[in-house]
Amino acid sequence: MQSKILLINLVVLFLSFSLTAIPGEWIIPSPKGGAELRLKLDAEFGLLYYSITMLKPSDKVVLEPSALGLIVDGENYRSGLVFDSKTETKTQTESYTLLSGKQLKIEDTYNQASFNFRTGAGEILTVEFRVFEKGAAFRYSIDHRDKDVISIFSESTSFNLPDQGKFWAQPYDAVTKWTPAYEAYFENGIPIGTRAPEDKNGWALPFLAEYNGVWMLVAEAAVYDGNIAVHLQPECPEGNYKVRFPEEDEAYNVCAAIPTVKLPWKSPWRTILFSNE
């Protein structure tokens, strides 16, 4: 009898440990349920991933699990993260008027939520998400406890595409006196996962991709307040495109090639538009 009780206690203890080791997962749906963004925290290594799926008219993967995170002043904001808190998912609507175009009055409705993660050094990394019916966007924010200014050394953001499909993008020029000048021709409908040409420093944004009946455009927005525009690494194994900061030579010794920003800080938006039409 005692051996059975001991066995039951061991099973309960094992199950309790297993449940606490399950990675965190959160879902942000679009306002009408046509798409969703999933955020996952790997419990073992504290790594953050996001993925996007179109749900209507049928389930289609937009992005497979893709990395998030930063390196800030040598501190690790991309692994060893622990969930701290989140805001409630709220539906927001923004209206604005364009100066020209087929439709001047624009109204955007999206669901928004922010997630706070604690680093190994005890600082907070916030990731804010917006999910639309045919799009999503996210950005990072930091308010360091003991600093007024920080330098963003690198960004782990990636866009992990299914590796069967086509890709349209402009190679990012190698640095010379007059480049990058964005004068290279776009690569037209090349296979997803194709490495950038050898004489280039990766791929420029925006880029377009098509796979499994889904069209997707990746870009960035709100590049201001000391932030820098990014491009993508030359290597994109199995369709995993990773953010790359400006080349060191691009600064021409006039300024640093990495952004130094005042706190509180918000990154540019990383935007993903998608459609099956």
The quaternary structure here is: single chain
From the alpha-carbon coordinates, what is the Rg to the nearest angstrom?
21 Å
Count of strand segments: 24
* Shape by Cα distribution: globular
Distance between the termini: 65 Å
Strand percentage lies at: over 45%
Total helices: the number is 1
In sequence order, what are the helices and strands, one letter per element?
HEEEEEEEEEEEEEEEEEEEEEEEE
Low-pLDDT ranges: 1-22
- Derived structural class: mainly beta
Helical amount among residues, as a percent range? Answer: under 10%
Summarize model confidence as the mean pLDDT: 89
Q: Would you give an account of this structure?
A:
- Strands 7, 8, 9, 10, 11, 14, 16, 18, 19, 23 and 24 form an eleven-stranded antiparallel β-sheet that branches. The protein has a four-stranded antiparallel β-sheet with strand order 1-2-3-4, with no helix packed on it.
- It is globular, with a radius of gyration of 21 Å.
- With 277 residues, it is mainly beta.
- The model is unreliable at 1-22 (pLDDT under 50).
- The chain has one helix and 24 strands.
Brief summary:
This protein has 277 residues and is mainly β. Helix content is 7%, strand content 49%. It has one helix spanning 2-20, and strands spanning 24-29, 35-41, 48-54, 60-68, 70-72, 75-77, 82-86, 90-97, 105-118, 124-132, 135-142, 149-155, 158-160, 166-169, 171-173, 187-191, 200-203, 207-211, 214-221, 231-232, 240-244, 260-262, 265-266, 269-275.
